[in-house]
Design brief:
This protein is of the alpha/beta class and about 725 residues long. It is about 30% helix and about 20% strand. The chain has 21 helices and 27 strands. It has a 6-stranded mixed sheet, sandwiched between helices. It has a 5-stranded parallel sheet with strand order 4-3-2-1-11. Strands 19-27-26-21-22 form a 5-stranded mixed sheet. The model is unreliable at about 1-10 (pLDDT under 50). It binds 1-deoxynojirimycin. 1-deoxynojirimycin binds next to loops. The site of 1-deoxynojirimycin has 8 residues, from loops.
């Protein structure tokens, strides 16, 4: 029987506060109760704390209005979050919690390899696990929402942000984007260790002209649908809670004022019911981009195009009351935007549990499981680019190693950009990794030179170290500030001083093993001939030393492949595997006259200490109909002496179609372990509608009858789609 008090509470409790009410009813009920001012506040994000990102400097907000939508939380202190949250919940009229966002890009405190490296692992399950760990550390620090993953297909390595995405291929960005979203968001956004994902930078930001950041992108409708939108569509389908609109101007209509991409595609066609946040200052920048005369018009354009949240600009807060009064912004749009933001807050469980559970700082970060995953991902993302005459692994007879170069003892750059809470002290250097691995070997270290500049005074010591050793391991690379946001470079070669060091070392006659740690493909045209072996370790995060040492010693068999092509020279840019066919694809017609047109290393390149033989490619049937599913299979044998992991990449080509299609399109990949001497069968379930069709310039999928080819390794089989 109900008591009077219970009946009273039942009546008094608004639906939006009732945990058992349907989520959409809670959203509707709350929106109904809000004043215009309260609604507008929800559409704004401010910055809490000092922004340590030099590209995104903004005033620190000292006194936050209660009832604000979101904060970028430049702090790792959960108690501080709880205090801010308490103020919002207790002193705003309706007790709406704040959404705490932050750039958790490749880990929070446990820093994982940068995203381009993650993609080279071809192990999306592992990336999902790492993202889960990153979410756990974020939640325990007070973060509910990360501005990640970046799924911008990027084919110009001069653009510093190639480090933040999954490379040149749409399917790679789709697979790794989905894995990352699933890792962050878990089964359910309200699970204790889930955080909301934010797909960025919607859309085609990776096409920044000339690789210069923040620039114009000239995107044809065909390439928008074929190359740049598919990763977003897949991640939206996978449930990504939010998106960030890009800085770029898409063929004349900036991404942050683009009704077509933000509303017609995202909300109307894909039915996304979360929200879009503008990138930092992107709304105000509409003035610079020449589509708004002032802040007010910029706000109006961004909002009416479909940007629900203003990141830091304060424009929505400043002008929306007037814009509503002037009837330029309909109330229905404001309410829809507010509902989208509240929906994510409800899904995250913030209304029912707004505070972070405080656990001891020692249990928060760098847990053994998280560190082991970081090392595993680093190991699987290091690419063996070259290995002449089996220079690697280093024989266990190696008594003396010369470890040379500015990256050899580095702990700061090796963790990569976008690692705000990462600490150099947590990282393991290459030197430390080698010391652990080679207990009975003398390691003769010399720095040789700095990352840049003209000072050659360290060369002498480096040459002496080389002369006293059996082999030279030279560790070069980029500072972490050379990639990431606002880090474009006109050449992708390493600074001349680093190349000169290798030239000097080569003169000793000792074998040269080149180790590269960088955030973009490099121009290796001069370094490659000087090196007996090359290992690309990217920026592996905190746990790179031991995995690299394991690869050098042969304890670990490298298994990564490139997710992005390494051009021979900067002048070859753009070069990527899925180009369209030339009109004269023979006799080197149309090729460069002065250099080879072939890049140095194609997408998919990566060596191992064993050999894999692909055979017995089979297909269920060679002729099939549109709605039939077929299975392709290949047997891969490890013909060498050591166990390994092989990623099998399945491509399709469509030689004759209404439009000219890319020469090859990756449709599926799978990585499996194969023991020495054993064979493993890999399968590709072909769904014709998904895998053989193409999209036209309006996004319509078209599947045409005719011949297709399935490529795997060097094998190729023809299949025919019939009526
Ligand atoms: C600007 C960057 O473009 C974006 O990737 C990042 O998430 C925001 N700043 C917030 O820091």
């Amino acid at each position: 029987m109900l008591t009077i008090a219970a009946i009273h509470i039942g009546y008094a409790q608004p639906i939006y506060k009732n945990k058992t009410a349907a989520l959409e009813n809670r959203v509707k009920d709350l929106v109904k109760r809000m004043t215009l001012e309260e609604k507008i506040l929800q559409l704004n994000q401010f910055t809490f704390g000092i922004n340590s990102n030099p590209n995104n400097i903004g005033a620190e907000i000292k006194s936050l209005p209660p009832g604000i939508g979101s904060l970028i939380y430049f702090s790792a202190d959960p108690e501080q979050r709880n205090a801010i949250q308490r103020k919002a919940v207790d002193s705003s009229r309706l007790g709406i919690p704040i959404l705490f966002g932050f750039d958790v890009i490749h880990g929070f405190r446990t820093v994982y390899p940068i995203s381009i490296a993650q993609a080279c692992s071809f192990n999306s399950d592992l990336v999902k696990e790492n993202s889960k760990q990153a979410a756990r550390e974020s939640v325990l620090s007070g973060v509910d929402w990360t501005f990640s993953p970046m799924i911008d297909v990027a084919r110009d390595p001069r653009w510093g942000r190639v480090s933040e995405g999954y490379g040149e291929d749409p399917y790679m960005n789709e697979r790794f984007g989905v894995a990352t979203v699933q890792g962050y968001q878990g089964e359910n956004l309200s699970d204790s260790f889930s955080i909301a994902a934010c797909l960025k930078h919607y859309v085609a930001y990776g096409l920044s002209e000339g690789g210069r950041d923040y620039r114009f992108t000239d995107v044809s409708p065909q390439s928008l649908w074929e190359t740049y939108l598919p990763p977003y569509e897949a991640c939206v389908k996978a449930g990504a809670a939010t998106l960030m609109s890009g800085f770029n101007d898409i063929s004349g209509v900036p991404a942050t004022a683009n009704h077509y991409t933000l509303t017609q595609i995202l909300k109307q066609r894909w039915k996304h019911d979360g929200f879009v946040v503008a990138d930092w200052n992107a709304i105000e920048q509409l003035i610079n981009q020449g589509v708004a005369k002032d802040r007010k018009e910029a706000g109006l354009k961004a909002f009416m195009a479909g940007v629900e949240m203003d990141m830091k600009d304060g424009i929505y807060l400043e002008h929306f009351k007037t814009l509503v009064a002037e009837k330029k912004i309909p109330m229905a749009n404001i309410e829809d935007a507010v509902a989208r933001i509240l929906r994510i807050k409800f899904r995250l469980g913030l209304f029912d549990n707004p505070y972070t559970t405080i656990v001891d700082a020692k249990e928060r970060y760098l847990q053994p499981g998280a560190k082991a995953l970081a090392a595993k991902l680093a190991e699987e993302s290091m690419v063996l680019l070259k290995n002449n005459n089996n220079a690697l692994p280093l024989s266990n007879q190696t008594k003396r190693i010369a470890l040379i170069g500015p990256m050899a003892k580095d702990k700061d750059n090796i963790i990569g950009s976008w690692s705000f809470n990462g600490k150099a002290a947590d990282a393991e250097s290459i030197y430390e990794g080698l010391q652990k691995e080679y207990k009975n070997t003398t390691i003769n270290y010399a720095k040789g030179c700095a990352f840049d500049g003209a000072d050659e005074t360290g060369f002498e010591e480096a040459i002496a170290a080389a002369n006293q050793s059996d082999i030279i391991v030279v560790c070069l690379g980029e500072l972490k500030t050379w990639s990431g946001e606002n880090a474009s470079r006109s050449t992708i070669a390493l600074p001349a001083i680093q190349e000169k060091l290798v030239v000097a070392l080569k003169k000793t006659g000792k074998p040269v093993i080149l180790i590269l740690s960088n955030g973009r493909p490099l121009e290796l045209v001069r370094l490659e001939p000087l090196s007996d072996a090359i290992v690309e370790i990217w920026q592996p995060g905190i746990a790179g030393g031991t995995p690299l040492a394991g690869i050098l010693s042969g304890r670990i068999n490298p298994s990564a492949k490139l997710a992005i092509t390494f051009p021979l020279t900067t002048g070859q840019i753009p070069t990527y595997y899925n180009m369209r066919q030339s009109a004269r694809p023979f006799d080197k017609q149309g090729d460069y006259q002065d250099i080879s047109t072939e890049p140095l290393y194609w997408f998919g390149h990566g060596l191992s200490y064993t050999n894999y033989e692909y055979s017995n490619v089979k297909i269920g049937k060679n002729q099939f109909k549109k709605n039939e599913k077929i299975i392709a299979m290949v047997t891969v044998k490890n013909t060498g002496k050591v166990n390994g992991k092989e990623s099998v990449l399945w491509y399709i080509t469509d030689p004759v179609c209404s439009i000219s299609r890319p020469m090859k399109e990756l449709k599926y990949f799978e990585k499996k372990e194969i023991k020495a001497g054993e064979s493993v069968v890999y399968k590709f379930d072909i769904d014709p509608l998904r895998d053989l069709s193409y999209t036209d310039a309006t996004g319509k999928r078209i599947l045409q009858e005719g011949d297709y080819f399935i490529h795997v390794g060097k094998e190729k089989i023809k299949i025919e789609l019939v009526k």
